[in-house]
Write a structure and sequence with these properties.
The protein is mostly helical. The chain has helices at residues 2-41, 55-75, 78-83, 88-94, 101-125, 132-177, 182-192, 196-209, 214-225, 228-243, 247-271, 273-296, 298-306, 308-332. Among the domains are: 1-41; 159-270, Receptor-associated Protein (Up-down Bundle), CATH 1.20.81; 274-332, no CATH class. The longest helix has 46 residues, at 132-177.
Length: 338
């Protein structure tokens, strides 16, 4: 009985792997055909208009329509309406979410249901019973996966802005030396630089073009970026706008302080590289040890997943591990106060 069960399970898994492999090959072939078509389309004349919709376009349209319908339903629920408000800052800052916050909530819901479907398919092919706890856990994991991607994207955006802020200060200082106004200097930065820093300065230029007060515009800029260089620029320009003074000397001082701070950060990063590597190794060692023991002798750790006491111990170990990482990061983090 056991041998026939294993054979049936092996056959089902083999068929599933073959089907997935065929789908991947088909997608690769379709992607290659699409690239070739785009490559040669500019050298050819399209005599016959092709009104056929591609498969991916159909899927995108179906996904967009489904997401809109879910958004209409979520708008009626007060809980989701209030919960979506916290994502508005990502829409206002630099269009990290290039959509309505409620559409983003619909994406989170769809991701949760997709994780539930994967769990159901996995349990069906492994002949395992489907429990409500599994479905709830899968939905929660899928629901918060977009948040992890969103936070990582926001961090990458802020790092890129911090990296380019010194360039923006240099361009503004050179613009002031050439006799340009603040608005013209902002326009120069938005044209000369690329990426999120250019988008932020374009927003400032548009706000000033529509007649907003300069102090309000730079306060918004500081709130969106939230960096020390942005606060230096905002404070300096607000003081100069109210009291007057030599803007070239002030911005030369801002540029010098920013350059010194960046240079000191790079030197500290080089000095702390070895300790940072040791910290990463110490963080990874417990995970590798747990994975190695589980791979060599699964029966030794399986009781932890089947016993309520084991679940309690796993939760306790995870909490201790998280606290350990937070404390070590706080200890090793070096801030430059300039």
């Amino acid at each position: 009985m056991s041998n026939s069960y294993d054979i049936n399970l092996f056959v089902i898994q083999s068929i599933l792997i073959i089907i997935l492999f065929g789908i991947v090959l088909w997608l690769v072939k379709l992607s290659r055909i699409t690239r070739l078509e785009r490559r040669f389309s500019k050298y050819s004349v399209n005599v016959i208009e092709n009104k056929e919709i591609a498969l991916f376009d159909k899927l995108i349209r179906l996904y967009t329509k489904l997401r809109k319908n879910i958004s209409k339903f979520l708008y009626k629920l007060k809980i989701f309406d209030e919960y979506s408000l916290k994502y508005e800052k990502y829409c206002d800052n630099a269009s990290v979410i290039r959509e309505d916050p409620m559409d983003y909530m619909s994406t989170k819901v769809l991701t949760g249901f997709a994780m539930m479907i994967l769990i159901v398919i996995s349990d069906v092919f492994q002949y395992k019973p489907i429990t409500s706890f599994q479905l709830l856990t899968a939905f929660l994991i899928g629901f918060f996966i977009p948040d992890v991607l969103l936070i990582s994207k926001e961090k990458m955006r802020k790092k890129q802005i911090e990296k380019d802020m010194l360039k923006a200060i240099i361009i503004m200082n050179n613009s002031f030396k050439s006799g340009l106004s603040i608005m013209q200097a902002i326009y120069m930065v938005s044209n000369e630089l690329d990426g999120p820093i250019s988008e932020e300065f374009k927003k400032m230029y548009i706000d000033l073009s529509f007649g907003l007060n300069m102090e309000v515009v730079f306060e918004r800029f500081t709130k969106r970026i939230d960096t020390k260089e942005a606060r230096y620029i905002t404070t300096s320009l607000n003081v100069l706008n109210k009291t007057g003074g030599n803007i070239v000397q002030v911005f030369a001082s801002v540029e010098r302080n920013s350059f010194t701070r960046k240079k000191l950060e790079e030197e500290l990063g080089a000095l702390a590289a070895s300790s940072s590597a040791i910290f990463k190794i110490l963080v990874v060692i417990p995970v590798l040890l747990f994975a190695t023991v589980f791979a060599l002798n699964p029966a030794y750790l399986i009781p932890l997943f089947l016993n309520p006491v084991g679940w309690f111990l796993l939760t306790l170990m995870l909490l201790i591990y998280i606290v350990y990482i937070i404390v070590i990061r706080k200890v090793m983090k070096v801030k430059v106060m300039l």
